[in-house]
Amino acid sequence: MNIDKNKTISRMKTLTELHGAPGFEDEVQSYLKAEMEPYVDEFVYNRMGGFYGVKRAKVDNPKRVVVAAHMDEIGFMITHITKNGMLQFTNLGGVATDIWQGQRLKVKSRKNEEIIGIVANIPKHFRTGNEGAPKIEDLLLDIGCENQEEVLARGINIGDSIVPETPFIQLSEHRFASKAWDNRYGCLIGIELLELLKDVDLNFDLYVGANVQEEVGLRGARASAELIDPDVAFVVDCSPANDMKGKQHLSGELGKGTLIRIKDGTMILKPTFRDYLLDLANQFEISHQYYISPGGTDGGEIHKANIGIPTAVIGVCARYIHSTNAVFDMRDYTAARQLLTQSVTHLNEDKIKALQYK
Questions:
Q1: pLDDT tens-place values along the chain, 358 residues long
Q2: pTM value surpassing 0.90
Q3: Residue 227: in which H helix or E strand, if any?
Q4: What's the alpha-carbon Rg for the chain, to the nearest Å?
Q5: CB atoms within 10 A of CB 82
Q6: Which Pfam families match (predicted)?
Q7: Residues 9 and 146 in one domain
Q8: Which residues make beta-bridge pairs with 207?
Q9: In this structure, is residue 171 part of a structural domain?
């Protein structure tokens, strides 16, 4: 079975345009549940907001396998409303400080409306030449209000969330741009994995879902891992590419396939798991590339949970993540989806035990 490319692109657009800053992932959760429901037997939840759809095995005492994404994207939270109706904010997740002036951001109001504003910047006419990069806390979002009362009347208050206002667009045959591909990629691949496996009987319980608050320190992953206590885990996440001037060591190149993440700041891939992925990638001629990152994924928390959970990241890279736009390649996504599908369907009790203890 395969999935129509246009269906995948439609899901990409919907997912990346949803508003889901850390701690405010409810829109993403609602969409995922609706898309996953036809393919799962039930949902399980932790108390932080993470959830998983469960495809039950038809065997006694089945093993448990997890495919874990995260729902949140980088964003901001309102910290102050000025007397003349401007919004000050703090970051939710790791962002550069020098890219936001003049950009469009959107606030999620308490009336459940999205309100677009412009990040204030000093016109060249008024600059002295001594201005440095501002701190996030010094930026102002202009939503067109004239005073505090007008802001409050629109249902906006301190503590509300902000994300970039970035429509999903197709740049070329294979490449697209959007906000939040980190990590709506993982949400998308989870939906499509379940769809691809809808008529496949597995000999283990498969849990597919997403955690919250990854962008603010991998906060939601441990709650999910301890809820499910999986025997094996696959993390699906998007990573930064640094290929604008060509290949830069092991930092990922667009169009070169899925990432085999062998090391990052939070986890080292077990050699047995590495070889399992590489053998399948080579056997099925799946485009892939080695990847190393100073950052981390939810795998950093999952692999340490309970008595230890063998964990691998099946990822893709994208340019300019944690900004208003990311540029990514559809071919990398389809390679990742193929490797994830083969990695899940080739598991059995003996292989799981080998990944756990060898």
A1: 789 999 999 999 999 999 999 999 999 999 999 999 999 999 999 999 999 999 999 999 999 999 999 999 999 999 999 999 999 999 999 999 989 999 999 999 999 999 999 999 766 554 556 666 788 999 999 999 999 999 999 999 999 999 999 999 999 999 999 999 999 999 999 999 999 999 999 999 999 999 999 999 999 999 999 999 999 999 999 999 988 877 778 889 999 999 999 999 999 999 999 999 999 999 999 999 999 998 999 999 999 999 999 999 999 999 999 999 999 999 999 999 999 999 999 999 999 999 999 9
A2: yes
A3: helix 221-228
A4: 21
A5: 13
A6: Peptidase_M42
A7: no
A8: 54, 66
A9: no
Burial 236-273 (b: 16+ CB within 10 A, else e): bbbbbbbbeeeeeebbbbbbbbbbbbbebebbebbeeb
Total number of domains constituting the chain? 2
Segments forming the whole domain that contains residue 67: 5-73+179-357
Assess whether 63 and 91 both reside in one domain: no
Structure tokens at 252: 């990922």
33's torsion region: left (phi>0), alpha (psi -120 to 50) or beta? alpha
Residues 242, 300, single domain; the answer is yes
Contacts of 146 (CB under 8 A, 6+ apart): 84, 85
CATH number of the domain where residue 106 is located: 2.40.30.40
- 157 shares its domain with 17: no
Catalytic one of 73, 165, 214, 215: 214
Beta bridge partners of 142: 86, 118
SS3 275: helix
For residue 141, what is the enclosing H or E element? strand 141-142
**Whether 353 and 208 share a structural domain:** yes
The answer to whether residue 132 is domain-embedded is: yes
Joined tokens for residue 206: 């498969």
Residue among 237, 229, 235, 301 at smallest CA distance from 265: 301
- 214 tagged catalytic: yes
Is residue 312 assigned to a domain? yes
